[in-house]
Write a structure and sequence with these properties.
By secondary structure, the chain is mostly helical. Helices cover 54% and strands 7% of the residues. Strand 2 and strand 3 form a beta hairpin.
Length: 175
């Protein structure tokens, strides 16, 4: 991460992203395979082995109480929204949630790093005009928000997911 102050919007978004990613790497480097499927509570959302890979727990309406996600679920969810954001910015067709394939505990960290590299390529390709373009993800098309808002949302969502994964890793290590 560069210490130089960014002088444009894309540079600021990239700086914030790299700061968040650096904090996330602290936990990614320390994750063990058994961390991913550890269930910290009686009510959890996780991933389950299936014939064609892993199936995530899901509900179209968020349950009450909300289940505690496992690291596996969080990494799958991160891969889903991140790949969708990148596809949206590039004007490509997005992948349906049910078609996002989590690679399993042994490959999840590298899978996330691949999403990171893909997102950096997206950020590096954005111009001011691109940032000002309307964006209908992750909110409705009539929300009046832009690609700049989407990029800022990616940073915020990554911060949240990194904190959740880090807290779960720390809790398991201390248990």
């Amino acid at each position: 991460m560069s210490d130089a102050a960014p002088t444009d919007r894309t540079g600021l978004l990239r700086w914030q992203f790299e700061l968040t990613w650096a904090l996330f790497e602290y936990h990614l480097e320390r994750l063990e395979d058994d961390d991913f499927l550890w269930e910290p509570a009686a009510l959890t959302w996780t991933l389950h082995p299936a014939a064609d890979g892993w199936e995530p727990d899901w509900a179209d309406t968020e349950p009450d109480p909300v289940p505690v996600p496992t690291i596996a679920w969080l990494t799958w969810h991160l891969g889903w929204w991140w790949s969708t954001a990148a596809a949206h910015v590039r004007g490509r067709e997005t992948v349906d949630r049910a078609d996002v394939r989590w690679p399993g505990p042994g490959a999840a960290v590298e899978w996330l790093r691949g999403h990171r590299d893909d997102w950096v390529a997206v950020l590096d390709g954005l111009t001011d005009a691109d940032l000002d373009a309307p964006s209908a993800y992750p909110w409705p098309a009539d929300a009046g928000l832009t690609v700049a808002h989407l990029a800022a949302w990616v940073n915020a969502e990554l911060m949240k997911n990194a904190a959740e994964i880090g807290q779960l890793r720390l809790a398991r290590a201390a248990a």
